[in-house]
Amino acid sequence: MLPPEIPPLPALTRAEAELIDRYLDVVDLLGRINPVHSGDTYRGLRAAQALVSKASALREALALMHQRGENELHGPTLTRALRVLDGERRAARIAVPPGAD
User: Fold this and answer.
1) Spatial CA neighbour of 9 closest among 87, 97, 99
2) Fewest CB within a 10 Å sphere: which of 7, 16, 21, 29?
């Protein structure tokens, strides 16, 4: 029995695909830095150090889109792309879980 097939990515420009990839890079690193998750400080430190270059790459992706005249983000299309790439689960690692304080 084969696992369910992943839906295809929506059609994206190369710049939009770069934006999504760089955004998820930053999200993944922020999830590793999030202090609500157990782990050692060295892991968080390494993620924070990497965050600087990944945030710069995200900025460059957005700047390239702007330079090319792609001045509008198409939310529904980019949302579908993020969902296909497991963006919801990845972004959830950034959040503080609800608690009974």
Assistant:
1) 87
2) 7
